[in-house]
């Protein structure tokens, strides 16, 4: 059940379903488990994509520290193309995320779970998008803008490196 998940649920409900007993308690645990399993693939996919997108800027920082763009300016054009691809790919990924979440919240498991908890006076189990999911959307939009800005900066960096390399060396 929810208290077994730990965190805020354990403290909010005192480690047990205070309003549930017998068949209702077992049903609540079953519905919680089924709801969790419905959301699990979406959460795993979101974490995997987010993790990969966090690795990319780390690689770019490392390449900048190693001065790869100075030695191989064409890398900045490759970076620009990758930034644009990521920014464009983020839009359908966000659509898939929200489409999947709405499907989970429209499921019979969620509706039954919501009714069961509301019958005992519990709040916060509604079948609608929650703050964390809305934050995913906002952060995804911000990431899209950031990657597009990074693409522009990569092109500007390419131009600057090419101009610097054409200047004669002054001692």
Key features?
single chain; 171 residues; mainly alpha; 78% helix; rod-shaped; transmembrane helix; transmembrane
Q: What do you see in this structure?
A:
The chain crosses the membrane at residues 42-63, 75-98, 134-155. This is MARVEL domain-containing protein 3. One of its GO terms (cellular component) is membrane. Residues 1-159 form the MARVEL domain. InterPro entries: Marvel (IPR008253), MARVEL_domain_protein_3 (IPR053077). The protein starts with 6 loop residues before the first helix and ends in a 5-residue tail after the last helix. The chain is built from six helices and no strands. It has helices at 7-12, 23-65, 68-71, 74-105, 108-119, 131-166. The model has no long low-confidence stretch (mean pLDDT 87). The chain is an all-alpha fold and 171 residues long. It has one domain.
What is the topology?
Layout: H1 7-12, H2 23-65, H3 68-71, H4 74-105, H5 108-119, H6 131-166
Helix pairs in contact: 2-4, 2-5, 4-6
Which blocks of ≥5 consecutive residues have pLDDT under 50? Answer: none
Average of the residue pLDDT scores? 87
What is the overall shape? Answer: rod-shaped
Structural class based on helices, strands and sheet pairing = mainly alpha
The helicity comes to over 70%
Structural domain count: 1
Oligomer: single chain
Keywords: Membrane, Transmembrane, Transmembrane helix
Membrane topology: Multi-pass membrane protein
Main location: membrane
InterPro entries: Marvel (IPR008253), MARVEL_domain_protein_3 (IPR053077)
Describe what is shown at a glance.
With 171 residues, the chain is mainly alpha-helical. The chain has helices at residues 7-12, 23-65, 68-71, 74-105, 108-119, 131-166. The chain contains 6 helices and no strands.
């Amino acid at each position: 059940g929810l208290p077994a998940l730990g965190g805020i649920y354990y403290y909010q409900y005192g480690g047990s379903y205070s309003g549930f007993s017998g068949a209702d308690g077992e049903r609540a645990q079953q519905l919680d488990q089924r709801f969790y399993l419905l959301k699990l693939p979406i959460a795993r996919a979101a974490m995997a994509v987010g993790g990969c997108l966090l690795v990319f800027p780390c690689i770019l920082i490392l390449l900048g520290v190693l001065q790869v763009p100075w030695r191989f300016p064409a890398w900045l054009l490759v970076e620009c193309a990758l930034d644009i691809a990521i920014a464009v790919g983020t839009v359908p990924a966000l659509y898939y995320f929200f489409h999947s979440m709405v499907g989970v919240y429209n499921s019979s498991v969620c509706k039954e779970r919501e009714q069961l908890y509301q019958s005992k006076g519990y709040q916060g189990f509604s079948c609608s998008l929650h703050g964390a999911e809305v934050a995913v959307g906002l952060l995804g939009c911000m990431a899209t803008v950031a990657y597009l800005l990074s693409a522009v900066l990569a092109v500007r960096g390419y131009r600057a490196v090419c101009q610097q390399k054409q200047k004669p060396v002054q001692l």
